[in-house]
Amino acid sequence: MNNTDYNDQGAFDAGNNRFVAPVAGTYLFGATLLYKINSSTNARMRGRLVLNGATEIRGSRGEISGAHASEATALRLQTMVPLTAGDTVELQGYFRVADGYFAADHTSFWGCKVG
Predict the structure, then answer these.
(1) What pLDDT shows up at residue 51?
(2) What gap in Å lies between CA 52 and CA 19, rounded to an integer?
(3) Where are the bilayer-spanning segments (predicted)?
(4) 31, 19, 14: which is closest to 83 by C-alpha?
């Protein structure tokens, strides 16, 4: 993540690109990854949210496996997860079959406490 638009509670650690839960509770997370062509529109774009750097958060994984339109194809992820204070959540995106990259100015990651 290149920029932080809103971080009033300081929960996003920009140096490590991850959300750090300030208190225990249920959190809602989401992300948008926008595809930008590198060499082929046949790349398989995947994304997921990861808890504490190791565990994929259930319901957060997605893939777009059809041909992509550069700067128009987006993968959106959303899920809820219970966290304890200090737990971290990070966005991971990657490609298979062919390479590409995520448009930094149009890729977002967000989280908020809901319960």
Answers:
(1) 98
(2) 10
(3) 20-38
(4) 19
Name residues whose C-beta falls within 8 Å of residue 98's C-beta, 6 or more positions apart in sequence.
38, 39, 40, 42, 43, 44
Q: What is the pLDDT of residues 29-64, one digit of tens each?
A: 999 998 877 777 777 889 999 999 999 999 999 998
**17 lies in some domain:** yes
Kindly state whether residue 46 falls inside one of the protein's structural domains: yes
Q: Residue 66 is part of a domain; what is its CATH number?
A: 2.60.120.40
What residue type is assigned to position 103 of the chain? Answer: A
Total domain count, the chain:
1
Q: How far apart are the first and last CA of the chain?
A: 26
Q: Using CA atoms, how far apart are residues 15 and 114, in angstroms rounded to an integer? A: 25
- Domain limits for position 33: 12-95
Tokens of 11: 């929960």
Q: Which pLDDT belongs to residue 57?
A: 97
Any domain includes 111? no
Q: Is residue 91 a part of any domain in this protein? A: yes
Question: Tokens at residue 64, please?
Answer: 């777009």
Query: What span, in angstroms and rounded, lies between the C-alpha atoms of 99 and 43?
Result: 6
